[in-house]
Fold this sequence. Notes:
The complex is a heterotrimer.
Chain A: H1 10-19, H2 30-41, H3 46-56, H4 60-69, E1 82-87, H5 90-93, H6 97-108, E2 121-126, E3 138-140, E4 143-145, H7 150-158
Parallel strand pairs in A: 1-2
Antiparallel strand pairs in A: 1-3, 3-4
Chain B: E1 2-6, E2 9-13, H1 21-27, E3 51-57, E4 64-66, E5 71-72, E6 82-85, H2 89-104, H3 120-128, E7 144-146, E8 151-154, H4 163-170, E9 177-180, E10 187-190, H5 203-207, E11 213-215, E12 228-233, E13 242-248, E14 251-257, H6 270-274, E15 288-291, E16 298-301, H7 303-317, E17 320-324, H8 330-343, E18 348-351, E19 361-362, E20 368-369, H9 377-387, H10 394-402, E21 408-412, H11 422-426, E22 433-438, E23 450-453, E24 462-465, E25 470-474, H12 487-494, H13 503-512, E26 529-530, H14 531-540
Parallel strand pairs in B: 1-6, 17-18, 17-21, 21-22, 22-23
Antiparallel strand pairs in B: 1-2, 3-4, 3-5, 3-6, 7-8, 8-11, 9-10, 12-13, 13-14, 15-16, 15-23, 19-20, 24-25, 25-26
Helix pairs in contact in B: 2-3, 8-9, 8-12, 8-13
Chain C: H1 20-25, H2 30-38, H3 41-51, H4 63-67, E1 79-84, H5 93-100, H6 102-116, E2 120-125, H7 130-145, E3 161-166, H8 176-183, E4 207-211, H9 212-224, H10 226-230, E5 233-234, E6 246-247, E7 249-256, E8 262-267, H11 272-279, E9 289-293, E10 302-303, H12 315-318, E11 328-333, H13 338-352, H14 358-378, H15 381-393, H16 405-419, H17 421-431
Parallel strand pairs in C: 1-2, 1-4, 2-3, 7-11
Antiparallel strand pairs in C: 5-6, 7-8, 9-10, 9-11
Amino acid sequence: xxxxxxxxxxxxxxxxxxxxxxxxxxxxxxxxxxxxxxxxxxxxxxxxxxxxxxxxxxxxxxxxxxxxxxxxxxxxxxxxxxxxxxxxxxxxxxxxxxxxxxxxxxxxxxxxxxxxxxxxxxxxxxxxxxxxxxxxxxxxxxxxxxxxxxxxxxxxxxxxxxxxx
Amino acid sequence: xxxxxxxxxxxxxxxxxxxxxxxxxxxxxxxxxxxxxxxxxxxxxxxxxxxxxxxxxxxxxxxxxxxxxxxxxxxxxxxxxxxxxxxxxxxxxxxxxxxxxxxxxxxxxxxxxxxxxxxxxxxxxxxxxxxxxxxxxxxxxxxxxxxxxxxxxxxxxxxxxxxxxxxxxxxxxxxxxxxxxxxxxxxxxxxxxxxxxxxxxxxxxxxxxxxxxxxxxxxxxxxxxxxxxxxxxxxxxxxxxxxxxxxxxxxxxxxxxxxxxxxxxxxxxxxxxxxxxxxxxxxxxxxxxxxxxxxxxxxxxxxxxxxxxxxxxxxxxxxxxxxxxxxxxxxxxxxxxxxxxxxxxxxxxxxxxxxxxxxxxxxxxxxxxxxxxxxxxxxxxxxxxxxxxxxxxxxxxxxxxxxxxxxxxxxxxxxxxxxxxxxxxxxxxxxxxxxxxxxxxxxxxxxxxxxxxxxxxxxxxxxxxxxxxxxxxxxxxxxxxxxxxxxxxxxxxxxxxxxxxxxxxxxxxxxxxxxxxxxxxxxxxxxxxxxxxxxxxxxxx
Amino acid sequence: xxxxxxxxxxxxxxxxxxxxxxxxxxxxxxxxxxxxxxxxxxxxxxxxxxxxxxxxxxxxxxxxxxxxxxxxxxxxxxxxxxxxxxxxxxxxxxxxxxxxxxxxxxxxxxxxxxxxxxxxxxxxxxxxxxxxxxxxxxxxxxxxxxxxxxxxxxxxxxxxxxxxxxxxxxxxxxxxxxxxxxxxxxxxxxxxxxxxxxxxxxxxxxxxxxxxxxxxxxxxxxxxxxxxxxxxxxxxxxxxxxxxxxxxxxxxxxxxxxxxxxxxxxxxxxxxxxxxxxxxxxxxxxxxxxxxxxxxxxxxxxxxxxxxxxxxxxxxxxxxxxxxxxxxxxxxxxxxxxxxxxxxxxxxxxxxxxxxxxxxxxxxxxxxxxxxxxxxxxxxxxxxxxxxxxxxxxxxxxxxxxxxxxxxxxxxxxxxxxxxxxxxxxxxxxxxxxxxxxxxxxxxxxxxxxx
Lengths: 165, 541, 451
C-alpha cells in the first residue's frame, strides 16, 4: 500500500495545538481545526478528516459528523479563490437577494454552491449575513459587499480578493 | 416506598429506585410508545413519541397539579407523588402527529422489509396513528448502503432515533456510525473506509426500531411471524449471555439477546449472535457408529441397541476415563458421570477440553466477551466434584491415558469447531474402547470405536453455569437432525429411566442431593440464579 | 419625538472608536477598575438584578436572575459563553457593537465574569462576521496588554481569559445549548433541559450564556448606574407583580422596505410605526406597509393596523406575535405577496432545523414543501389548514420539541395564515383553478435543489 502524503502540514498541526490550552478536552478543538485546514486548502477532504481525528484522538466518523452538520465545508474539491455568499433571508430577499443569486449563477454558468471551472469563484446562497442595513449584500471572502445590484455585484466579484481568514 | 399515579392507578416503587415515567408506567401496565429511549443508552428525548401529561400530587393535600405542557416520559423521573397520564386526548393527538411526521418521508417498503411484523413504526401506526395520509404522495423505495461486514443499512427507512450511533459511541466505544448533514436531509452513515466492524456490531440491528438496519446474516431469510422462539443461553463463551433462539420448522434463523440485568443486560457479541450455523452444517455426525476393530469401517447401530452394547463394550474394556465436555449441561454432565461410575466405579472423571481464544475483552459500556469459549466449565466442575473431589482437567486425562492407566475412554465434545490435533488424538490410539461423542469428525473420531453424534446448543435443554456462577436453565428450541439422540436422551436411557428425558427432574435430583447446586431446587427465574447465594446463606444460618 | 442620545452606539461614527484609547477617553474601563477594587461578585449580581436588565438575545430573561441560578460555592470552573452567533434574519445590532465598540462589550464581559466567578469566557462568533473577528481579537489583545484580562486583573485576585471561537454558519448555534454543543466540538443539537446550563453546561460545568448587547448594557450600567438604566424604557406594571418591566435602551434593527435601514438606539417601548417613520424615513417609495416583523423572523408578523404596538418585551405578544425577540424590525410593503414571505420563512427554517426532534425536522420540511407547491400554482385550501396545524402544534411551548427554533418556525406560519388568510386563499384559487378544492393528498411537487 502506498503511503498517503499527509494533507495537514506541520504548520496546520501547530496552529491546532496552539489552541489546545484554551479547552479542557481535545474534542473542543474540532471546529477550530476544521477552520484552520479550510482556511489553507479551501476545503476539508476526507483524508484531512482522518488526520484531524488522529490529532484530536477521535474517530473519523465523529469529526465528519460535526463537519457535515454545518453544511459549510466543501470536501470534494476546493471552493473558489473567492467564495461569494449571497444572502437570501428576508431583508435581502425583500430587496432583490434571490434575483441577485439567480443572476450571478446564470452569468457564471454555475448552479448555486457551484464553482466556476477556472476555480476562481464559488457562489452560494447564505442565510442572513447580519448586514440587513445594506441589503442586498454579499460576503466575498472577508469583504462585505453592500447594497448590491446585479451589475455592481458582477463588477465586485471580478476583483481578486485576499483569502478568507 | 414512593407512590406514582399512572392513569389514576397507584403503584409503589422503591424509594431508591431510579425509574423514568416509561418504566413506572410499565409497572402499572401502561406501555408508553417510544423510539429513541433505551435503558442501555443515554437519554436524548428526540423522537417525541413518549410525550405524556405529568403532574404532581401534593403529599399533604392530595391536590393534583398538572404541567401545562406535554413532557417526554423518558426524561421525566418518577418520584413520590408523580402523576402520569398516558391516554388523554392531548397525548393521543401528539402521538398521532409524531407517527404522521415519521411516515411523511418513509419509503413504502413493508412488503420487502425484514422488520415487518416486529417494526415499531408499523405497530405504533396501528395503535396510535391516524388512518389517512395527509401529506403529499411520493411513493419510493429505500436506498441501500453497505456499512460493514455484518450490518446493512436501508438509508431512507431511518427515523433518526440515533440509537445505533449512541451504541457505537457509548457501548462498543468504537464510534463507527455517524449522522451526516442537517435537518430533514440527515442520514446515518459510516466514514468511508471505516466500516461498522466491532465485535458487538449486530446489536445495532436489535436497537433499530424500524427496518433501516438489517443483519446481513438474516436478510430475507424468514418472515418473523413464522418464527417461534425459546429462551436459551448462548454457548459461545463462559459469559453465558441470555438469548432467544428464533426458529421455524426446526431450522434456526437467528439469535437475539434476551434481557438479563445480571449477565449481558441487552447485548450479545457477534460471535454468539451469528455462531449458530454449525448446527445446520451438513457434515454433522449423524447416527451411532461402531467399529468392530481398528481396521474395519464404522457400522451404524440402532439407538435402542446402543444403550446396551455401549455399556457392554465399556464394561468389557476395563478402566474407564471420561471427559465431560464443558459444552454439556449440568444435567447431562451429572448423568454421564452416573453412567460412567455405574460401568466402572473407579472411572476417572475429568472436565473436557476447555477452548480458549484471546483475552477477556470488556467494552466501555461494561459488556464482556470471555476468552473461555465454552458455556459450562464451572457447572461441569461442580458436577464432577459431587462424584470425586479431585476434579481433573482435560490435560490430566490425556496424561492419564498416555501413561496407560485407562483401557477405555469416553470423550464428549459438542464443540462448534475443530478442537483436537493429531498429536493429542494419538494418545487415545491404543485404547481398547474409545467412545467419541461430538458434532463433527476429527482426528479423534477417526480412531473411535464408537462414534456418536452430539447436540447443538439449540437442541439441548438444561442448565449451564457461567463464569459468575450464575446458573441459567433453558428449553430446547429445535429438534436435532433425524438420527441423532442428544446426549441427554442417551444418558437418560443408559441410566434405565423411563419415558422421555426430563431435564427438570434431573436438575431437582441434583439440587436435592448437593449443597453446591441447592439453588436449583425450585423454579429458576428467566434470568438465572446465583449458585453461591444459597451457599452464603447456608454458611451464615 | 426627542431622539435618544446613543449610549450603546456612542462610538459609531467616532474615528478609531474601536480602540482602547477611544474607549477609555469616553469613560470606559474606569467602572471596571473601581468595581474590582471595591466590590464583590455578589454586588455586581445585585446591581444587574436591580437594573432590571433583561437579556437582549431574544428570550428577554432577567440577566441578574439568570446569574443567581449558578450553584453557590461551586469549585469551578464556571464558564461564561457570549452568544455572538447573531443569525436571526433581520438582526445586525451585535455586528455593529462588535465592530464599532468592542471594548464596551469586553468590559461588560469582564464584569459579568467577575459577577458569576467565571474563569474563562468564550465568545462564540458567527463565521459571517470577519470584521467583528478582527476587531474583537485586536481589542482582546489590547485589553490583555492593559492588564484588564489575564491573571490577577488589576490586583483584584480575579483572573479571566477571553477566547474567540468561530462558528460555521448554522443558525441553531445561537440556541444556548446548541452553542454549547458546538463549542464542545459536536453537532449543534440542543440539549434536553433539565439540566439547565447554570447547573450543567459547557463541558458539564456551570455555565451562563449571555448576548453581546446584554454585555454592552452591563458595561453601561456599571458606568452610569442602576437608576439611569431604570429611567429609560417601560417600567413594570405596578398592578402585575410578575411583570419585570422593559428597562434600558434598546438597539432596534430596521430593514426591508424603508427609506433608511439601520440600527437605531431608543428606549425600550418605541412603537413600530414611530421607529419606521421617525428613524427609518418611512415606508419606501411612498408605499404602505402590508406587514412588519417585530423582532426577527421568528416572532411572526404584525399587520399595518398593529403598528402602534409598543416594541417592548410585552407588546408584540399582545398582537399574537411570539415576542420582542431580537427587536429586528423588517418592513414588508403592499406589493409583496404573503406567499413569497412565508415561503422565504419556511425555506429558512427547513434549512436551519437541526433535525434532532421529529416535529421540527419533519414539520419544517413539510411546510416548505407545501409552500413550494402553493407557489408553483398547485396549492389547495386544505394546505392552509395543515399549515395552521403545524403552526399551532410545533414547538417548545406546547412541549413537542426540544428547543425554541420550532416555535420560531411555527410563528410566521401561524401569524401569516391567521392574519392574511384571505390573500392566501385568493392566490391559491387564482393559480390553481382546477385543484384548489381537492382535499385528498396530491402528488408531491418534484423539487430540484430547493435548499
